């Protein structure tokens, strides 16, 4: 039976939420690499904690905390509820938010309202999202403009997921010529373009190529958190797919390694650190390594599935954790944290 593409995409979105919430799909052997760093404790900060400023600016928008609710979902009724809750908490705390792939909204316009979040987050940095590989499957500027318009987005994320597509049933695996197509899009689209991985990391070499192509910002989305190989293994339709997911469950570059290697070759590019970040201490370490903002997905998904109160509690905790790091390292703001030498690599 030939299943309509829009139906299969929508079903896949529902499966992804269920699997991420119910199954153990976290990397086991590889970590985000941030545990290899520690802050130098300052026993006399000479600061009033109430004066510490963790605000920042990213892509021209002011954020009251250096946090991004990373791209997750959309396209189903449950996903619409989750996205609305996430947008409302993003607005309340003035943090950034990305959405999951909007391909489903292009294929099935009736679900576009699950991505129509500007009414819930009028002041927030909102990031639209499409898979870059779709440029080899009849997508182009028009589809990119459509998803930006649906979200009323400030920027467009193009996600790269070659490993996931290899394991996914009927995955889109023609990645040939995509760099040139990304460059063409960057030259035409009126919003900034962000390129992100989905949990296997972006190397310094690839970041240089993307920046040369006109990409405005990079989201490293390194290994160490949710393994999309494991997620797709849980959805496997045959033994081959299941085996591939298990074999490549811990594939990728640790988040910390991505940050430091990209910063070594591109010290000024707007840089998002995501991939296995689970609390504010992880976020603070990533920022001390010179990322601009820190993205978290799984903690926000888990909280959103519970409700608004759980999301507010999570945001309060993350902000308190980042603020505590600054206070206990004697830094009054994020710029000082990044330039203080407070983070040291643990020698093993």
Task: Write a structural description.
- The chain has helices at 5-22, 77-93, 103-107, 141-151, 162-167, 178-188, 204-212, 228-234, 239-247, 255-265, 280-288, 298-306, 308-329, 334-339, and strands spanning 37-39, 56-58, 61-63, 67-69, 96-98, 126-131, 155-160, 193-197, 217-219, 271-274, 293-296, 343-345.
- It is α/β, with parallel strands linked by helices and 348 residues long.
- It has an eight-stranded parallel barrel with strand order 4-5-6-7-8-9-10-11, surrounded by six helices. Strands 1-12 form a two-stranded antiparallel ribbon. A two-stranded antiparallel ribbon has the order 2-3.
- Helix 7 packs across helix 10 and helix 11 packs across helix 13.
- The longest helix has 22 residues, at 308-329.
- The termini are far apart.
């Amino acid at each position: 039976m030939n299943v309509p593409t829009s139906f299969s995409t929508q079903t896949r979105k529902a499966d992804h939420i269920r699997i991420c919430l119910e199954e153990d799909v976290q990397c086991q052997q590889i970590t985000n690499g941030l545990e290899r760093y520690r802050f130098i404790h300052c026993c006399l900060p000479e600061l009033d904690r109430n004066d510490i400023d963790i605000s920042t600016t990213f892509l021209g928008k002011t954020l009251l905390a250096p946090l991004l609710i990373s791209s997750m979902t959309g396209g189903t009724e449950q996903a619409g509820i989750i996205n609305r809750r996430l947008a409302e908490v993003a607005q309340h705390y003035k943090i950034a938010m990305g959405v999951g792939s909007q391909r489903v909204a292009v294929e099935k316009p009736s679900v576009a309202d699950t991505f129509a979040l500007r009414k819930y987050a009028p002041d927030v940095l909102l990031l639209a999202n499409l898979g870059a590989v779709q440029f080899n499957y009849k997508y182009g500027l028009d589809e990119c403009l459509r998803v930006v318009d649906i979200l009323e987005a400030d920027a467009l994320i193009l996600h790269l997921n070659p490993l996931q597509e290899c394991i996914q049933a009927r995955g889109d695996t023609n990645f040939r010529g995509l760099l040139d197509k990304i460059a063409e899009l960057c030259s035409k689209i009126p919003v900034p373009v962000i390129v992100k991985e989905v949990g296997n990391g972006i190397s310094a070499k690839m970041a240089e190529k993307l920046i040369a192509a006109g990409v405005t910002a990079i989201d490293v989305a390194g290994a160490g958190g949710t393994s999309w190989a494991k997620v797709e293994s849980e959805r496997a339709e045959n033994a081959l797919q299941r085996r591939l997911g298990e074999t490549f469950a811990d594939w990728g570059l640790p988040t910390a390694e991505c940050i430091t290697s990209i910063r070594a070759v591109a010290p000024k590019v707007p840089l998002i650190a995501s991939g296995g970040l689970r609390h504010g201490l992880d976020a603070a370490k990533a920022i001390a390594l010179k990322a601009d903002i820190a993205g978290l997905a799984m903690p926000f998904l888990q909280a959103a599935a519970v409700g608004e109160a759980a999301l507010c509690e999570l945001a309060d905790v993350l902000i308190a954790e980042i603020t505590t790091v600054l206070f206990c390292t004697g830094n009054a703001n994020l710029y000082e944290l990044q330039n203080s030498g407070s983070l040291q690599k643990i020698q093993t």
